[in-house]
Specification:
Blueprint (H helix, E strand, L loop, with lengths): L1 E7 L8 H10 L4 E6 L3 E6 L7 H9 L2 E7 L7 E4 L10 H9 L2 H12 L5 H10 L7 H9 L7 H10 L3 E9 H11 L3 E5 L1 E4 L2 E6 L6 H14 L7 E5 L5 H6 L2 E5 L3 H4 L4 E3 L6 H5 L13
Parallel strand pairs: 5-6, 5-10, 6-7, 10-11, 11-12
Antiparallel strand pairs: 1-3, 1-4, 2-3, 8-9
Helix pairs in contact: 3-4, 4-5
């Protein structure tokens, strides 16, 4: 058995019965299970559908995401999430760079690194070097005034945890940000790079070793093994080239609003849904969602 899931952005809620019926007809029919009116619907299939790229492209034009996967084992027991441009809407190093007066230069390097055009570690060291001398108090200022959560993130973490899952935030960014963001969202643990400082100022150097693509893969392996889970019981989400290793290794690797080089390598591509799309992918309905109190 396979399940095809159609997902719209909740802000649009533009998934109509007609769109779902047309998709089901294209797939040869199947039982419809609405997960949220106007937002998400499952189509239960008797086998794996072939040649779905035409349907996917058509639905993308209507701002609808489309995912096909085996029905068994959809709900995962471990969530491994990137932070920047995934659980939050910003790139933290870019926000620090704005405060240091080098925003445009750093943002350009970040974009190229996330597209896979630059070596991640070298690009990180280059960007951090441009922050040398920045007062460490600016970090809290950025957290307080420039960082916003990605829509759907609180419900994603709270709902998975309420159903027995473990949540880990694994970032190529910095512990100064992953610590507070993990605590705010309810992650069980977080891993990231460390910004070095001296006399209250950033030194322009990160601590070694650098947490990048390989470290995220290692985190997925280590945490799943520690919890006694198979990789098939894991779901990972990210948007940049340094996320590709964990996305392709996880049982379900979700490219969320991802760079083209990332989306091209992932079977689950969410270009319009918010983070609650990961819950619909796992078969949760909106009625199952846990919305934590702010």
């Amino acid at each position: 058995m396979y399940t095809a899931t159609l997902i719209a952005n909740p802000a649009d809620a533009n998934l109509t019965a007609e769109i779902v019926r047309n998709a089901a007809d294209f797939l040869g029919g199947g039982r419809l299970v609405w997960l949220a009116d106007g937002i998400a619907c499952d189509i239960e299939l008797s086998g794996r559908p072939e040649a779905t790229e035409e349907l996917w492209a058509n639905l993308q034009q209507q701002r609808i995401d489309f995912v096909v996967q085996p029905s068994q084992g959809r709900a995962k027991r471990l969530l491994l999430a990137d932070m920047d441009s995934t659980m939050i809407q910003q790139e933290c190093i870019d926000e620090l760079a704005v405060m240091a007066g080098v925003g445009e230069r750093v943002a350009g390097i970040t974009a190229r690194a996330m597209n896979g055009e630059l070596d991640f570690e070298a690009a990180l060291r280059e960007r951090v070097a441009l922050l040398a001398g920045l007062d460490e108090a600016v970090i809290q200022q950025v957290l307080d005034t420039r960082i916003t959560l990605m829509p759907g993130g609180p419900a994603l973490v709270a709902t998975m945890k309420a159903n027995g899952a473990y949540a880990a935030l694994v970032s190529g960014g910095f512990t100064d940000f992953t610590g507070p963001i993990a605590a705010r969202l309810g992650f069980d643990e977080n891993r990231a790079n460390t910004l070095l400082r001296s006399d209250g100022k950033l030194t322009g150097e990160p601590a070694s070793p650098i947490l990048g693509r390989d470290a995220k893969v290692q985190a997925l392996k280590e945490i799943s093994a520690r919890l006694g889970l198979t990789l098939g019981q894991t779901i990972a989400v990210g948007d940049g080239a340094n996320d590709l290793g964990m996305l392709t290794l996880a049982g379900s690797g979700v490219a969320l609003h991802a760079k083209p080089v990332v989306a091209a390598e992932c079977d689950v591509r969410l270009n319009f849904a918010d983070l609650t799309g990961l819950l619909y992918v796992q078969g949760y309905s909106a009625a199952d969602f846990i919305e934590p109190v702010a």
